[in-house]
Amino acid sequence: MVKLTKAEKKVAYDSKLCQLLDEYSQILIVAADNVGSNQLQNIRKGLRGDSVVLMGKNTMMKRTVRIHSDKTGNTAFLNLLPLLQGNVGLIFTKGDLKEVSEEVAKYKVGAPARVGLVAPIDVVVPPGNTGLDPSQTSFFQVLNIPTKINKGTVEIITPVELIKKGDKVGSSEAALLAKLGIRPFSYGLVVQSVYDNGSVFSPEVLDLTEDDLVEKFAAGVSMVTSLALAISYPTLAAAPHMFINAYKNVLALALATEYSFPEADKVKEFLKDPSKFAVAAAPAAAAGGSAPAAAAKEEEKKEEPAEESDDDMGFSLFD
């Protein structure tokens, strides 16, 4: 096997990255802190088919992206440059971004709490028998963990928050967790940003459902409608409300003056004789009654001669 020189490796890497930029329009930018080579290999195998994982130095990736953008005239590639910070890699994919992101999240492995490591999560030591002999109680005393001796072994009485998220792991905490066999942390590729045809957005967007989008759209329409009504600017969303409000104003004016029109005449007629409201409401009240009552009314209707009904007094303001 021919061993490539350092310069040849750079040329090969540049060529591969340029090829991937041309072939794929979707890229996941992932953080690769504390991810080992074996774990990365398993991730590559799991994504094989429609996705390619590419790692490399940030300076090399930035240089290639700039040069390729100049050659092709595609300035959208430049949106990747601010994202290439820290220990990151690129996952080029033609699959569904959400599905690929979920697949990447599956490949996490447990890791011990090493001294000096910044805790990514809170570490809580659960209560119970530790299996350690009483000579090990010094570890628990240093960390102020309440214990008791039960059947010749140390038992933790209550759950204890040993390490808080963002704190560095101390030597005592690391030694205790190692003795208890607790591997509190898990590491894997973490999606930080998503590049899709030149657009860059947060991975949280991938978790949005159609219901979430409809809800946000409805909220936006409501805000547009409120603003349009406040400044009396006609929009498609505000037009129905404007027509209703205008009709109410015209109706109120007709009731306060001699001016009238057919719909206003009906309202004036009802206002002159409020009892008609009760007549119009009677069928609705009857509909809400019990079944026996309804049956009794049917029998009464059969026995009594038919009379002219006032049910036709109901009306619509838009008749």
Any key phrases for this structure?
12 strands, 11 helices, Ribosomal_uL10-like_insert, Molybdopterin biosynthesis moea protein, domain 2, alpha+beta, large ribosomal subunit rRNA binding, five-stranded antiparallel sheet, Alpha-Beta Plaits, 319 residues, disordered C terminus
Short description:
The chain has 319 residues and is of the alpha+beta class. It folds into three domains: 6-108 and 188-207, Alpha-Beta Plaits (2-Layer Sandwich); 123-184, Molybdopterin biosynthesis moea protein, domain 2, CATH 3.90.105; 213-313, no CATH class.
Kindly state the number of beta strands. Answer: 12
The percentage of residues in β strands lies in 15-25%
The rounded distance between the terminal residues' Cα atoms is 89 Å
CATH third-tier fold name of the largest domain: Alpha-Beta Plaits
> Can you write the helix and strand succession as a string?
HEHEHEHEEEHEEEHEEEHHHHH
Give a verbal description of the structure.
- The chain has 319 residues and is of the alpha+beta class.
- It is 46% helix and 15% strand.
- The protein folds into 3 domains: 6-108 and 188-207, Alpha-Beta Plaits (2-Layer Sandwich), CATH 3.30.70.1730; 123-184, Molybdopterin biosynthesis moea protein, domain 2, CATH 3.90.105; 213-313, no CATH class.
- The chain has helices at 6-23, 37-47, 58-72, 97-106, 137-142, 171-180, 210-231, 239-256, 262-272, 275-287, 291-303, and strands spanning 26-31, 51-54, 88-93, 109-111, 123-125, 128-129, 147-150, 153-156, 160-163, 185-187, 190-196, 199-201.
- A hairpin with a 2-residue loop joins strand 7 (147-150) and strand 8.
- It is flat.
- The model is unreliable at 305-319 (pLDDT under 50).
- Residues 284-319 are annotated as: Disordered.
- Belongs to the universal ribosomal protein uL10 family.
- Residues 113-182 form the Large ribosomal subunit protein uL10-like insertion domain.
- This is 60S acidic ribosomal protein P0.
